[in-house]
Amino acid sequence: MVAGMNDSQSTQYVPVLMLLLLAIGFTLSMLVGSALLGKRGRRNRAKDTAYECGKPPMGGPSPRFSVKFHLVAMLFILFDIEVVFLYPLAVAYRDLLGNPGARPLAFFGTLTFLGILGVGVLYEVKKRALDWRS
C-alpha cells in the first residue's frame, strides 16, 4: 500500500517534467533554427557602433565616477541601515520595558550600534562628504 502511494506522488511530477522538456526543446530548436536559417550579414564599423537616437555616440563606454559619488552612496547606505535596525527596536521597545532582563541588552546593543554609526558619521565629516559645495 505504501508503494502505491509513492507511485501516485511521483506521477504528479510528470507534467512538470514534460513542461521542462518542452521549454528546453523549444529553446534549443529556436537557437538551432536561427543559426541555420538566419542570414549572414556583412559586418562593418558603422553597423557595429551603438545607436543613440540617430547621432554618433559621444564619450567613452564607461565614464568614471568621482569619489564624491561613492562617499554619498556610503552615506545613504549608512543612514539607511540605521533606519532598518532602529525601526524594529522602536516598535518592540514597549515589550522590552516589560522584561527586566532584556533592558540592559537592548540598551547596550542600541548604544553599540549608535556608536558604530557615529564613527561612520565622523569619518564622513572628516572626508568632507557632507560639504555639498564641492
Verbal overview:
This protein has 134 residues and is mostly helical. It has two domains: 2-48; 67-126. Helix content is 70%, strand content 0%. It contains six helices and no strands.
Give the helix/strand layout:
Elements: H1 2-11, H2 14-37, H3 45-48, H4 67-91, H5 93-98, H6 102-126
Helix pairs in contact: 4-6
Give a quick summary of the entry.
The protein is mainly α and 134 residues long.
Return Rg in Å: 30 Å
Mean pLDDT across all amino acids: 79
Given as residue ranges, the uncertain stretches (5+ residues, pLDDT < 50) are none
Oligomer: single chain
First and last CA, distance: 78 Å
β-strand amount: under 5%
Number of helices: 6
Secondary-structure content class: mainly alpha
Question: Approximately how much helix is present in the residues?
Answer: over 70%
General shape: flat
Query: What is the number of independent domains?
Result: 2
Q: Which series of helices and strands comes N to C?
A: HHHHHH
Largest sheet: none
Give a count of the beta strands, DSSP E runs of length 2 or more: 0
List key phrases describing it.
single chain; 6 helices; 134 residues; mainly alpha; 2 domains
